[in-house]
Amino acid sequence: MSVSIQLEVNDESYQVDVEPGTTLVELLRERLHLTGTKEGCGEGDCGTCIVLVNGAPVNSCLMLAVDAQGCRVTTIEGLATDGKLHPLQQSFIENGAIQCGFCTPAMILSAKALLDHNPRPSEEEIKQALSGILCRCGSYQKIVEAVRAVSGRVDPLRGTPGQPD
Amino acid sequence: MKADALYVGKEIPRIDGLDKATGRAVYSVDVNLPGMLYGSVVRSPFPHAKILRIETSGALRIPGVRAVVTGKDFPFLFGALIQDQPFLAIDKVRYVGEPVVAVAAETELTAQEATDRIRVEYEGLAPVFDPQQASAEGAPLIHEHLEDYFHSDCQILPKTNICSLHAYSSGDMDLGWKESEEIFEDEFFIHAVAHSPMEPHAAVAQYGPSSEEFTLWSATDRPYRLAQDLVKALDISFDKVRFISTFSGGSFGGKGALVAEGLAVALARFTKGRPVKVVYSREEELTASQTRHGALVRLRTGVKKDGTLVARKANVLWDNGAYCGFGPNVARRGSRTVFGPYRIPHVELISHLVYTNKQPGGAYRGFGTTQMTWACEAQMDIMAEKLGLDPLEIRMRNAYVEGDLYINGQVLRSVGLKETLERASRAIGWGKSESRKSGTNVRGKGLATTIKGTSTPTDSACFIEVAPDGAITILSSSVKIGGGQKTVLAQIAAETIGVPLSSISVPNPDTRLTPFDFGVSSSRTTYHMGNAVRRAGEKIRERILEIAGEILATDPACLKLSEGKILKEGAGEQLSLKALLAKKFGSKGGTLLEAGYYTPEKSSLLEAPPDRKGMSSIFWMFATHAAEVEVDTETGRVNVLRIAAAHDVGRAINPVGCEQQIEGAVILGLSNTLFEEFKLEDGRVLNNTLADYKIASTLDIPKIIPILVESPHPEGPFNAKGIGEPAAAPTAPAIASAIFDAVGVRIKELPITPEKVLVALREKGQR
């Protein structure tokens, strides 16, 4: 028995029928074809499936799609605006924070959520904010550097550049 | 080395960064084809059992099920060196998690429901988990007919569980012991760990019923090797197998064998042309893929009182798990590194690789070197302490230098070992006395070093094609597993040809279109594929200058190609490459295409006595890690404060890429050493989630100081060697060395858990 839900993903609205057991990551990847969100364990342990729901990082494998009714979801595909990369995307590329890239979307989105409410986090705060995402390539040191490089450039009143909200 | 290099040696952001930062990179788990079915697998609940009966009718009755396949339906064996592994168990199972029946269905859920309806009856057999017990006389045989398997490059012992025996000696052991002033005997253990890439194993396979061709979409790091494994297993010709590479979400050696691929192939054979996707769950990843081989190492080492090494006998017992994969190669090539990067006149090695009823071992970053470095370096510290030498001093005294002979007689070139020792130790303030104790925490420093060769000789080939507008494509089968391979190859091509980096693209491999490569393994891509790209690039540059000479009516020797512009000696820019090609091809189109092929087979650098030449490596990598730790004497907890990691890379084509490899490997090494261990009960992995099998997170990382040492290699592309594999090897012994320096306890068995440290501290207190 499917349920009809309405949600906003990357500033586009969707109305979809989902099964009650469908998770948000399944909806995003299989129905909306947004495969930038990765599923590394399906159990909420690895964090690679993190997306932003109403601006907050959420393990999309642990959230049912029906619970996203009326929510605003941001995935990695929605981060660049008008073809311009988000400063965090740019910084990850420039600072060598990407190896295999499988955890990169989750890392960037979690870092965005952090900077949006804490524009100048300490190194410890960055590490805490990203500690739920595992990276087996071990890019952590450069990821923290990439986030720091952006944090200095953020206007504390307006949030992360490129994101008017 | 060109002084005016534009791309080589530069910190160039990786060219696949944009795809990865925007979520556009397609990994194996993202492949989605029209008509695609989903696979699910029934796995063995027993470590060792006979299969009496398989009842599949319940599964076949479920609507949406398209194929149910057992080992009897697809009765083939695969294996890179010993063909011992069925795609699906035949007659018996040999580890908990072994695939027994596979199902393909319209949806993932239907496939899983169908597997739940399959009944398998087993009759238990005595299992054996410990390699010492497995190699003892009378142990239950895991493969009763070992001698019947097709095998190459390894010595099997029929009617035993020993699937590979390797012995080597050089010098005169009797003389060695006689000349030794002190003899040390120690035993070390290093445990199995999971590769656990963030992207689990996944593959899509499609079988063309009329073409009889298998096409695979997979993230393997060795597409040609896996194609070869399938060709051998199914006894089909090479043109019937095609691997299309996706981006890879991490391998660390674990994606170099048929894992999800084998199951997808077995299913696809029965789905009438519809593709089948198999994605491993995290539980399957942790329990039924591959592991690092565990190893027990016994060392007997003779030294002079001043620390000079004289003789070493090493006895290595490798825990192979249920099937071989690359095991025999790990056991042979890995074991030899037990002699470390040191001059030892008299050496003797005996290595046994032993089947056990556990998840199979496989290639793991370091390919055996990590295991041997643990033993070798731990004993170096023990000897240093007894002889009253500084750990740095004993290593400097014995370290290989340029021109030394390796244990097989090969003359060593490009040896930056001592510089790695000096610079890593200096970076953590070696020898400086600092405040060591605060409360229950005590600080200490330690170091360890390693040597690693590359599989030799192995081949790489590529094509470079120039489109009529000057866009350049490198067609190569070097897979992008996350090490920056694309970027390094593009840098080498841009530098060699004389074009902007932005004009070069490196598509993912497809074995039907991109030529042979041995694989992204053995730290070999920069050197081997880099050389192939350089050769093809040189031909392309010559061809372009030849055309420019014709069009400009000038001697090509007076022309130069730089950043895509044709320059004339003394006259500056004549025209762009794009304009040149427009003149050459006009509106009808055309192409410039050259091949580059590289094998070190004939290199004089490999020279050694004929019977030992097989041990020569075309390049040797050296590294030293120096660690500072803090040990809490109350809890036994070890906190690693900083690790300086100095690596001799020959020449860093891309220094950021090298730093990524070093930092990542230090974290992998630290995680393996302090956190990771399989908890087994009757052969079953109990910690089968990432909550229970802990790997390092951002909260666990020390300050890492990567140091690049450049001892130019005479035949490397722009003098480069490799970096990926040795990077994790010295981390564990460096940490153990620092723990001893801090609190005076010696851990000889990995992993280093707080419990072990506490027990050792208590034992020390009682002495």
Task: Provide a descriptive summary of the structure in words.
The complex is a heterodimer of chains A (165) and B (767). By secondary structure, chain A is α+β, with helices and mostly antiparallel strands. Chain A folds into two domains: 3-75, Roll (Ubiquitin-like (UB roll)); 87-151, [2Fe-2S]-binding domain (DNA polymerase, domain 1). Chain A contains five helices and five strands, in the order E-E-H-E-E-E-H-H-H-H. Chain A has helices at 24-31, 87-94, 104-117, 123-130, 140-151; strands at 3-9, 12-18, 50-53, 56-59, 72-74. In chain A, strands 2-1-5-3-4 form a five-stranded mixed β-sheet, covered by helices on one side. In chain A, a hairpin with a 2-residue loop joins strand 3 (50-53) and strand 4 (56-59). Chain A is globular. Residues 156-165 of chain A have low confidence and may be disordered. Chain B is α+β, with helices and mostly antiparallel strands and 767 residues long. Chain B has three domains: 17-25 and 458-598, Aldehyde oxidase/xanthine dehydrogenase, molybdopterin binding domain (Aldehyde Oxidoreductase, domain 4, 2-Layer Sandwich), CATH 3.30.365; 31-125 and 195-287, Aldehyde Oxidoreductase, domain 3; 399-455 and 615-767, 2-Layer Sandwich (Aldehyde Oxidoreductase, domain 4), CATH 3.30.365.10. Helix content of chain B is 26%, strand content 26%. Chain B contains 18 helices and 31 strands. A seven-stranded mixed β-sheet of chain B has the order 3-7-1-14-11-12-13, sandwiched between helices. In chain B, helix 13 (485-497) runs parallel beside helix 14 (525-552). The longest helix of chain B is centred in the C-terminal third of the chain and has 28 residues, at 525-552. Chain B is globular. The model of chain B has no long low-confidence stretch (mean pLDDT 96).
